[in-house]
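Allow me, if you will, to draw on your knowledge of protein folds for a short while. The matter concerns a single protein, recorded as an amino acid sequence and a row of backbone structure tokens. Could you please explain, in whatever detail you think fit, how the structure tokens follow from the sequence? I remain grateful for any guidance, and I place the record below:

…
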Amino acid sequence: MELFSDETLAIFVPILLYWVYSGMYMALGQSMDKYRLHSRKEEDSNNMVSKGEVVKVVLLQQLVQAAVAAVVFTLTGDSSSTVTYHKEPQGSSSSSYYYSYLTLVRQFLVAMIVLDGWQYAWHRYMHLNRFLYRHIHSWHHRLVVPYAFGAQYNHPVEGLLLDTVGGALAFVVSGMSPRASTFFYSLSVIKGVDLHCGLLLPGNVFHLCFWNNTAYHDVHHQLRGSRFNFSQPFFVTWDKVFGTHMPYVLEERPGGGLQARPLIAAKATHNGEKI
């Protein structure tokens, strides 16, 4: 008898990983300052919300996520799982069933595309609509200098709409099982933390696999980047399709560390232009 159901794991494992993974980044401390995209002083002075308030808002969002996930799993039941199972050949030492890995890969890709598309559309619209930006999305941009556990710091309405509903939609459309969704939601959470961690560490597997990395999203959080780089959490495809992709250059930051400069800003500086 299993101690926890697949649905329970899918609800709570990603939340646990959020705090463990972001905590690992925060615990690195000054030893990794040479890879920081902003100085510690900027993190303390430029942000417009305290870390204590960030923790409270993130916990509220995760509580809502857990409640919605429980409702979705209850409504979909076993019908959400369309994973193909194959029985191992007779004579095998095990008579258990195993996932069709091709089906699982397809479901992950579908879920990633759905979540990326959903978040891009709403994220961009919240920047274009002055009312939505001022009253809802501006909460997230109070973190001018992002850090790991601030990844899910959003207005509760935005957290529900972009993350919670987006995740539920990806689950339903892809047809993955609750067990598979545990891994997908965990990947999504870790990727979101990685985008906001403020550290461009060498050998980071996510930076090797995805162009949408810490520096790419940092450009969006910069004031000049607010009209660009809306894509999250996985690919940069929608930015390229709709003309909101802003390349950047990595430079050494005065005083140590790195900085991601939007390419348009770097070119203007090189040409002596004022922007």
The chain has one domain: 6-78+99-262. Residues 6-78+99-262 form one domain.
